[in-house]
Design a protein that fits this description.
Number of strands: 18
Structural class: alpha/beta
Radius of gyration: 21 Å
Shape: globular
Length: 464
Amino acid sequence: MKKSALLMGAILVSASVETLGQVKDKAPNIVFVLADDMGIGDLGCYGQRKIKTPNIDQLAEGGLLFTNHYSGSTVSAPSRCSLLTGKHTGHGYIRGNKGVKSENGFFDLHLPQEEITVAEILKAQGYATMCVGKWGLGGPETSGSPINKGFDYFFGYLSQGAAHRYYPEYLYENEKKVMLNGEVYSHFLIMEKGLDFIKKNADQPFFAYFAITPPHADLDYPDLSQYEDAFPETPYINNKKKGFKTQMKPKAAYASMVSEIDKNVGQIIQLLKDKGVWENTIFIFSSDNGVHCVGGHEPDFFDSNGPYRGYKRDLYEGGVRAPFIVNWPNVIKKKRTTDHITTFWDFLPTVAEIVGAKPVKEVDGISYLSLLTGKGKEPRNHDYIYYEFYEQGGKQSILKDGWKLIRLNMSKPEKLKEELYYLPDDIGEEKDLINQYPGKAGMLRELAMKARTESQHFKWENSK
């Protein structure tokens, strides 16, 4: 990557208040609600008709709805790494869900000390910072622990693998275990802790990162009454010790989990209003990757991935497209929609520009602040959208000027398969044009290999 592109991350501004022309002399609060494995089609504002999401839909009615937003990856840990460090998976430190054993247990590969996160930037600017829910970027007493990555407070699952269970034996508060003995529905307690943080810090700028776990499998929710008899059900039965739990009404459970998230958004908004800080809060809602299709969930029944092909773990659009909604009452005065291509790795440079932080070097993101304000020039276009993935034989994709190359079986060159799509005419990726346009495929193939650096931890030859 060219040096000029690497330096496009955070833009140095003299003062965020002057730049934004805000009515208050206080930096804006930032609330980011990140759902886990929710599809872009699961929300009413993106076309959902069977699941009710009135609060999120209202968030979009008064804010900015992104129709071409890309998540950080097609699975959890690398997507969160991208969101917090501003790098795509060709440059990110964490490029897959990779476990590491330590004396404290089995946790995810941890971010090193030199990786700068959004939370570290905001904390240096005087923000109170919080993460509740699922971390997945390092265990306790490592450089990747949330309290060593800029967060004043953490509560939830440090390990993304442990977050599959909603009645855990324990959760972590900062780096200490809080014993729950399998008797507490974790999400309720996680939300309680997150709301409590806002209550305690509403008198100063804060960053509240709700990395909540629904609707990730297990499909597990205490009260299915809202959707109990709404859908034809096929029970999901698992008699093994491993894997996702049995759920007799998986459709009702999934819909209930999505509506629970919507209720949570309403709870957060009401608290912000009660504390008198709603107008000066940037509220963002998204999901970490495409919809899952495990544990009994039938994404096609709900049209969870909208018009896109593929699910979680795919590099087709359905695996990496994400809902993305931003509401900022002081700045976004009416509903708008943007089809400008944006990504998770744009979040860090956007935040840096908002708060007037010093530039963070060698990031891939581009600030979309001007999209939020509606003033000035639109952000420059990404040269390309790049992904690499290390499961299911290894995958790679690159999107440039509407042309998308997908490479499968990266771990076995003799079985390498390539597919080429032109998204403006084929958003569902149904027409493989690889034979008609070999020159275009060759150009994208060469660009894909230039878009990445080698990783000591992630190699395609080790992909399963």
